[in-house]
Specification:
about 230 residues, alpha/beta
């Protein structure tokens, strides 16, 4: 936890999806490595940390550039989509996600999802978790939403997400749950507070901007932000 941070009361909560609600990051890693293996390359965490939270095409462009692949970003994107179609429907919920989401819902806290995924990708990933995702007020799929002009680390996705709550809360009244450095940057740029649940492989220096860093959603210190304390 960043001891230099002060915490402000919030009224609304926004969740990133991949790596926060759904355990898709391991599947993304597997899909990426499957593709890179064809070109004799190895996917590293240093590279993955740069890509987390980006739109799929932005990620494809960076991967082709970093690994100097003999294909276009569009060709890489096509290969990746084939991998995702096979792998993503099997994704599980992240530990503590169901408990936290239901806790907030039961206590009348407005909740939403702001994901870089496209609408098509969102539907694929949430196929077996519809009962949980129906609890959200709304979902913003940044990969295909016309109002989201720029992806993370730009603030667009979270600002759009906040604007779609019926009461349109100001950014400082929103708390964001994120696992990616780019996502945390987006939340802060939007004027929101951020709780980060980083993968254990993310370097500590890339977690310092978050207001709070936790290992699991069960550890979320909601009371620091004026929200009902999570019962474990």
């Amino acid at each position: 936890m960043n001891s230099c941070r002060s915490f402000k009361k919030v009224t609304h909560v926004i969740f990133d999806m991949d790596g926060v609600i759904l355990d898709t990051e391991t599947l993304y890693t597997k899909a990426t490595q499957n593709i890179l293996t064809e070109f004799g390359k190895t996917y590293s965490w240093a590279v993955k940390a740069q890509l987390m939270g980006l739109h799929s095409m932005e990620s494809a462009k960076k991967l082709v550039e970093i690994y100097n692949l003999p294909i276009t970003p569009e060709e890489y994107y096509s290969l990746a989509q084939k991998q995702y179609l096979e792998l993503m429907p099997s994704c599980d919920l992240m530990p503590g996600a169901c408990n936290l989401i239901k806790h907030l819902k039961l206590n009348g806290i407005p909740i939403a999802v702001g994901t870089s995924s496209s609408k098509e990708s969102y539907e694929l990933k949430t196929k077996h978790h519809k009962d949980l995702f129906c609890l959200f007020n709304h979902v913003v799929t940044g990969g295909s939403d016309p109002e989201v002009k720029k992806g993370k680390p730009n603030p667009d996705i979270f600002l759009v997400c906040a604007s779609r709550f019926p009461d349109k809360p100001s950014p400082e009244k929103c708390l964001v749950f994120e696992d990616a450095p780019n996502g945390v940057k987006a939340a802060l740029s939007a004027g929101m507070q951020a709780i980060m649940i980083p993968d254990e492989n993310v370097p500590p220096e890339l977690t310092k901007e978050a207001h709070v860093v936790i290992k699991c959603l069960d550890d979320a210190p909601l009371e620091k932000f004026g929200l009902p304390s999570l019962k474990k």
